[in-house]
Design a protein that fits this description.
The complex is a heterodimer of chains A (about 230) and B (about 210). Chain A has about 230 residues and is mainly alpha-helical. Chain A has 11 helices and no strands. Chain B is of the alpha/beta class and about 210 residues long. Chain B has one domain: P-loop containing nucleotide triphosphate hydrolases (Rossmann fold, 3-Layer(aba) Sandwich). The radius of gyration of chain B is 17 Å and the shape is globular. The chains are: A mainly alpha (about 230), B alpha/beta (about 210). Chains A and B meet through helix 1 and helix 6 of A and helix 3 and helix 4 of B.
């Protein structure tokens, strides 16, 4: 028996591997961002290019588009590992499965959630959001996509046994992330109207803390059932 | 001897398991001690894979218990798994990564030095494809990479489910040589296979499931 590697080393190994895999398959990884950009481009065309009207719906459009975009990638979070046997090995690695799954979710968020946050100022500007509100828009999406990745991770782990569980993942995830959508869109809306968004942002932060602390336990339990 | 075996090895006591509505494993007991290999044989569908997955802790037995070094595996599964290497039907390899990258990841998780990876892959006859994506390897080469992962793990217990699948005769001999080395160093193994398992060293006991 050899010395056990530290938890951080193990976590970073999982994180680095998943990022490397995503870069080898970048055409899959860019899907969420492309989706967000498409939706945001279509809205002014379909609705009206008038700045005042766009500004009114900008927060909602941005948030709904971001939510649906990050749902796109969720199904693949554990599926590949399940299919090639890596998941069994992770379960049997002798490391806490919840801990490992945190890093898998973080890698997934880095690939599918973070890019949404990064392009959101561009998208928001195209929806006539004033520059003063961009920081809050980004912050709300930063917290919100985190909630989505963790809650969605639990749903993805639960549906491992289902072939093509894409719709099921969305159906399971959406009700659970409604609060994040409500507070996130409200925060962005308040900022666009030039008011303080502190309240909804703090609630969003609380949701993130809650999902980061509880979701890994649910994910670990679901993955154990998934490999049985 | 029996008592020391109980302390140092793997033991299963009257294990029962169901797969779907079939009672596949009925009151099975076994023991593996250092330097010993247990060869599980029997026709398809007799429960070899189920048994090996129970021993690995992937499936919970309906009844009975699995003990590792005298303690129920459920007490400290992480310590048990840290000392176990499992090879299932799937190779746990990423098609987009090279054998080197694949095994570097698993050996990091097992806490083994990264320097050993290339040498072990070489020992399995894979010098020529260290940097190629696993996608382009043949089925037998993939199996060799997966077996190299087991050899790299440094675990005292190897649980191998059909390790010889897709291997040529040279590959089978390589695996048996690695197994002999493992057993000679006081390792243990449970191997489910249709072929005979004949390492030069260590003692092999055959168990026919029916």
């Amino acid at each position: 028996m050899t010395a056990r590697p530290g938890l951080w080393r193990v976590g970073m190994a999982v994180y680095a591997r998943d990022l490397r895999l995503a870069f080898r398959r970048w055409e899959q990884a860019v899907q969420p961002v492309v989706f967000l950009l498409m939706v945001a481009t279509l809205f002014p065309l379909a609705l009206s290019p008038e700045a005042a009207q766009l500004r009114g719906v900008a927060a909602g459009v941005l948030w709904v588009a971001a939510l649906l975009a990050s749902l796109l990638a969720l199904e693949f979070l554990f599926r590949a590992d399940h299919e090639d046997g890596s998941l069994e090995q992770l379960v049997l690695s002798g490391h806490p499965l919840g801990w490992l799954s945190i890093f898998k979710v973080l890698a997934h968020w880095t690939i599918s959630g973070l890019p949404l946050v990064l392009v959101s100022p561009v998208v928001a500007t195209s929806l006539a959001v004033p520059a003063s509100a961009l920081a809050v828009v980004m912050l709300s999406l930063l917290l919100g996509t985190g909630v989505l990745s963790f809650v969605g991770g639990a749903a993805a782990a639960l549906t491992l046994g289902v072939k093509r569980g894409g719709v099921l993942v969305s159906v399971l995830t959406l009700p659970l992330v409604m609060p994040a959508l409500i507070f996130g869109a409200q925060a962005a809306d308040l900022a666009i109207m030039g008011e303080s968004a502190r309240g909804p942002l703090l609630l969003l932060l609380a949701l993130l803390v809650l999902s980061v602390s509880l979701a890994p336990l649910a994910i670990a339990a679901a993955l154990r059932i998934g490999v049985e | 001897m029996q008592d020391s075996g109980r302390q140092t090895g793997l033991e299963a006591r009257s294990v029962h398991a169901w797969r779907g509505d079939r009672h596949v494993i009925r009151g099975l007991s076994l023991r593996v001690t250092p330097g010993h290999c247990l060869h599980l044989a029997g026709p398809n569908g007799v429960g070899k894979t189920t048994l090996i997955r129970i021993l690995a802790g992937l499936i919970r037995p309906e009844d009975g218990s699995v003990l590792w070094r005298g303690e129920a595996v459920g007490h400290d599964p992480d310590a048990f798994h840290a000392d176990t290497a499992f090879l299932g039907h799937d190779n746990a390899l990423k098609a987009d990564l090279s054998p080197l990258e694949n095994l570097a990841f698993w050996s990091a998780l097992a806490g083994r030095p990264a320097a050993a990876v290339a040498a072990t892959l070489g020992a399995f006859g894979l010098q020529a494809c260290l940097g190629l994506p696993v996608r382009v390897l043949s089925a037998g080469q993939k199996r060799r990479v997966a077996l190299a992962r087991v050899a790299l793990s440094g675990a005292s217990l190897w649980l191998l489910d059909e390790p010889f699948t897709n291997l040529d005769t040279g590959g089978i001999r390589l695996v048996e040589a690695q197994l002999a080395q493992h057993l000679a160093a006081g390792g243990m193994a449970v191997v489910a296979a249709h072929q005979p398992v004949t390492p030069d060293q260590g003692e092999v006991r055959r168990m026919e499931l029916s």
